[in-house]
Amino acid sequence: MSISYVLVLLGLGVFGCAVWAMFWAIEDGQYDAAEENGDIPDLLAKGDGPRSEVSPNVPPEVRSEA
Q1: Would you say the pTM of this structure is higher than 0.70?
Q2: Rounded to an integer, what distance in angstroms lies between the CA atom of residue 18 and that of residue 62?
Q3: pLDDT digits (tens, 9 = 90+) for 32-55
Q4: In terms of DSSP H, where are the helices of the chain?
Q5: Are the C-beta atoms of 54 and 63 separated by less than 8 Å?
Q6: What gap in Å lies between CA 17 and CA 15, rounded to an integer?
Q7: Neighbour tally for 37: CB within 10 Å
Q8: Distance separating alpha carbons of residues 34 and 19, to the nearest angstrom
Q9: How far apart are CA 6 and CA 13, in angstroms?
Q10: Rounded distance, CA 14 to CA 27, Å?
Q11: Residue 30 — pLDDT band, cuts 50, 70, 90?
Q12: What is the mean pLDDT of residues 4-19?
């Protein structure tokens, strides 16, 4: 049972390091130019990007509206 305590503490330590690394990267400016370089697509923009195909399980009356 003592190994459980060690594994829980180890997991919390790794999680804490990951959270710290994320905040460090944000504060250091690692994500500042992502939108400017086009790395993050604007998924809500109309007319941009490929159109998705309609699933064959959709009834024909719904397909005509899409």
Answers
A1: no
A2: 45
A3: 776 666 555 566 656 555 555 555
A4: 2-27, 60-65
A5: yes
A6: 5
A7: 7
A8: 20
A9: 10
A10: 20
A11: confident
A12: 97
